[in-house]
Amino acid sequence: MTARAKRGAGKAGARASGEARAVESASAAGSKASGGAKKRAGAAGGLAKAKTNGRRHVVVTAGPTREWVDPVRYISNVSSGKMGFAVAAAAAERGWRVTLVAGPVRLETPAGVERVDVESAREMLAAVGSAFRRADAIVMAAAVADWRPARRLAGKWRAKDGGTERTTLELVRNPDVLATVARRKGRRAVIAFALETGDGERRARAKLVRKNADFIVLNDDSALNRERATVTILGRDGSARRLERRAKREVAEALVDLLDRHGDLAR
Ligand code: CTP
């Protein structure tokens, strides 16, 4: 929960319907979801499909999710969204049609990318579920909150509502977005991310299998909110490729290479 939540409170109210909104962005520049954007995206989506005949389509997720406690507080994490946005930009430049499902981040929409803004894990699941149905691949770089408050309070949670020195907040489990949509992935490519603080490779490989992914990008927490990252890309075939202190854009290019190769094999 952060002070920033207070500033975002009005916006949160406006989004309380829980609907993801879509924005079609031809070239630029941080166009954010606004009322009516959903309709425009629908029309533009149809157009994009007609125009992009034969292009492969990847769904990329980015950023944190935000789980509201009350009108002024939320649970979230420090993910900046940079990795997912770099993947979206690289894939679009390499000719992929890209649907970018973004949590709350302050980043501009890369050129040629269709962006859907969401807040909570449940909104992300709805947006990803519908986009992945029509797609050939998914890159799940979002840092999805595993838990959300059991209730979102209508009014502010006041200090006096707790005990004098301690209180508890009841949390319930969020859906696993990736595991849910990748369960029936067929030949489509699935790239997951894993942030681990210890025993990384073993845990990440277990996640790769559990979530039915083809590759998992193992990060440590030094990648969070930074320009550069050291990652190991683990493959379902047992492969491991380490990239040391690379710009996120370089990591993104390596992932698009994998998508291209997987797409060729699946054809
Ligand atoms: N993920 C997801 N939905 C969740 C949690 C994670 O889709 N509710 C995705 C992430 O986007 C990432 C992968 O699953 O691609 C692994 O995320 P991570 O947070 O490392 O794994 P968890 O399943 O949350 O496991 P743990 O908390 O035990 O590390």
Describe this structure in words.
This protein has 267 residues and is α/β, with parallel strands linked by helices. It contains eight helices and 13 strands. The protein has one domain: Rossmann fold (3-Layer(aba) Sandwich). Helix content is 32%, strand content 25%. Helix 4 crosses helix 8. It is globular, with a radius of gyration of 19 Å. The chain starts with a helix and ends with a helix. The N terminus is likely disordered.
- Widest sheet, order of strands: 1-6-5-2-7-10-11-12-13
- Helix tally equals 8
Under CATH, the topology can be stated as Rossmann fold
Can you tell me the CATH architecture? 3-Layer(aba) Sandwich
Highest CATH level, the class: Alpha Beta
Intertermini distance: 46 Å
Present the secondary structure layout.
Elements: H1 4-7, H2 9-14, E1 21-24, H3 37-51, E2 57-62, E3 67-70, E4 73-75, H4 82-93, E5 97-102, E6 113-117, H5 121-132, E7 137-140, E8 147-149, E9 171-173, H6 177-182, E10 189-195, H7 200-210, E11 215-219, E12 228-235, E13 240-247, H8 248-266
Parallel strand pairs: 2-5, 2-7, 5-6, 7-10, 10-11
Antiparallel strand pairs: 1-6, 3-4, 8-9, 11-12, 12-13
The structure holds cytidine-5'-triphosphate (CTP).
